[in-house]
What we know:
Layout: H1 9-13, E1 18-26, H2 31-45, E2 51-54, H3 68-79, E3 83-86, H4 100-108, H5 121-139, E4 145-146, H6 155-164, E5 169-170, E6 174-176, E7 183-186, E8 189-190, H7 197-213, E9 219-224, H8 232-245, E10 250-251
Parallel strand pairs: 1-2, 1-9, 1-10, 2-3, 3-4, 8-9
Antiparallel strand pairs: 5-6, 6-7
Helix pairs in contact: 2-8, 5-6, 7-8
Amino acid sequence: MNPAPLSSATDRTSGKRRLLVSIHDVSPRSEAQVDRLAELIERRAGHASFAMLVIPDHWRSAPIEGNAAFAARLRGWADAGIEMFLHGWCHRDETPATQGLAGFKGKHMTAGEGEFLNLPEAEALARMERGKALLEDILGRPVAGFIAPAWLYGPGAHAAMARAGFALAEDHMKVWRPATGEVLARGPVVTWASRSPGRIASSRAFAALARAALPITRTLRLAVHPGDTTVPALLDSIDSTLARFVRSHAPSRYADLRGSG
């Protein structure tokens, strides 16, 4: 499949119209899938024109610490210009709620992976600081920010982020500065789900709607996951969505939002 022709840089950057693309769940257990997603994105958006969300110890079975080969890959990706976000510590919800709004979110919005939805502030801060120190030591530079697994934050996580010194955070509907609460971009993130036929169908339908409706927004966000590579129909949907979005918005860095007016 040949990439759709891009509009001019002037057209795509007029009015600071930006496209932010991210690969979630980057860890030693997803390396091959991350490579495949990176290749797909770069065909449409250009070299290193996306962010990676890194899990230090995915489900406590894939630690980056002590894995020199994967650490070298992370450093290489960062050196190439890819933004690196801390994406929790283990990505697994080890303190699941069973009632109330938190219980609903944990059950229906993620498959047991809302790690920071119910953590108390002290534990949330400890995981953030440990993960931040680990990645920054590997990368040789600050991380771009913190994004919680499944975009789910509890009160403890919000309080901890304000103390941990992250420049940026995002959830399903916005990007903001944790230290001040200033919102830098609004609008839903377009993502896909591969857990069941129903979720596959609904995420493809939302992406089709987004291709028609969202290009009017100033900042577009698109997020992909390693599991997307297991479903050809999702890869086709991702490719079509990228092709549509790069015609109207310039592939950009999250850091660009920090200087936006």
